[in-house]
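Fold in tokens:
===
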Amino acid sequence: VIANIRGGGEYGPQWHQAALKELRYKAYEDVEAVAQDLIARGIASPAKLAVIGGSNGGVMVGNMLTRPVASKLFGAAVCQVPLLDMKVFSKLLAGASWMGEYGDPDTDDWKYLRRHSPYQRLRHDCLGIPEDGAQPDKIEGWVCPKVLFTTSTRDDRVHPGHARKMVRALQEEAKGLAPTVYYWENIEGGHGGAADNKQRAHMWAL
């Protein structure tokens, strides 16, 4: 199923602009709505439903892993060359060029960026780790779906540090709430994650 969520370019400029910056949450609500519809119609069940996305789609998958509704809709996820820490994205590699899409985390834009920054959502909202000295409202009953993260050491657009730190938090801080977390980092390949068809086939076989 291709969701064609708001924020994409499938239906023209207005469709794209409908989920920019402070409206980004609408894209994630759309993914949830598609998943809920598939389940309601008996086409899939949470145990057999997975979500996959890369780059900008990696932010989406990160949100599906950490949103209270979405994390119960999917049994598995694949998060490829993802943006995940929206607090620092603008300082890493090509990140500054995407501030028109997401916003500037060093301004008041952080107030809405924080709500859909997967790394902060994981550590503070899902795991209850204090944020700036304050105790957050922890999401009760959260468990991370099975997840595979893929990235490339030579990605020149999205820094592999996004995936690395998310995996570290899941493996070291989640304490049993993320029972199945896989990670694959290719030392070649750039933002596509693979340098040739053989590597690409290996990546998709994972």
Remarks:
- The radius of gyration is 16 Å.
- The chain has a mean pLDDT of 95.
